[in-house]
Amino acid sequence: MEQTDVELLRAYELDGDESAFTQLVERHGGWIFAAARRRLGDDHLADDATQAVFVVLAGKASRLVGSKRRSLSPWLFHVMHFACARIRRSESRGAERDGLARAARVQGLADRPSSDGALLHLMEDSIAELPVVEREPIVRRFYQRQSFAEIAKAMNITAEAARKRVSRALIKIKDLMVRDGVDAIPDAFLGAFDNTASRAGRAGQRAVDGRRIDLIAKGTVAMVEDSKACEYPVVSAEFFVTDVEANLEFFEKIGFRRRYIETLDAMGRVPRASLVAGVGRIWLRRAAESEGTRPSPGVTLYFWIDGGPDVLIAHRKRIAEEGVAVSPFFDDHSLRNFTVTTPDGYSIGFFTQYR
User: Fold this and answer.
1) How many structural domains is the chain composed of?
2) What global pTM score does this model have?
3) What angle do CA 65, 280, 81 make, to 5 degrees?
């Protein structure tokens, strides 16, 4: 008999069974990635959102295991929804910092959905508002691609009851969308959503198959362990650099860990890579000579250090011992901070709050 989501999570939390966590990633990673990509319009951002969802899941495992829920689907949808919203806000702020080129890219992503695409986004906002008992059949039907019989088995109800629950939830979603300003919802809209979700779900499942599943699962466990010692906010930033390998070495010295590295190109150079610390990620991408690599003056990416000034002092000392030049401590609005400079001139700051 197939284990429920919570049974798998219990095996991971109580028995340290990482294969159980991998099964959860296999079960839910595809539809989460597909939904995130539909909202964010970018594979790398969708990957960030998917990773963030499973980091939160691992971090909340103890509380979720103690709950009476059998399925994690509605809870995972809710986390995915907020992760995507947070990433979009982060991208928008980054566009404001980095200038017109990135702003145009972000605006392009925002403009990409058709009118039906805008309705899909509004629909997903409405799904996130549903109570868990109403959200679960919707997520199972339209995201996990389950039949009414499969929904019935998972929720311990009849197939007819599953169909009615989906129908009632859809009516409530329509009401929420009308409340938010949609004058009329085309009759074919739900069918279009069904088809879109199906295509995206299949593509998303392919995207998280095989080695990527293993990387997400193992990377999540490692990130959660790292975050116990040093908490960073959820941050995803991309830097264009002249030498990816040199920047990988630099970020390792300031506390990041290599996560993903592409194969060498024809010239033997690394074209792209990423690093993680806590639940934050840095993407490095080798820049073409015409793109340039210098940041805008005064732009600094800051990471929060949990534990107060003593932990911040210790972190600065560790970095200095690695041979990295560090700034003096600064105090801004009761927040103590210091900065370092990457090989390409980006400023990276670390800060904390006095207790």
Assistant:
1) 2
2) 0.56
3) 55
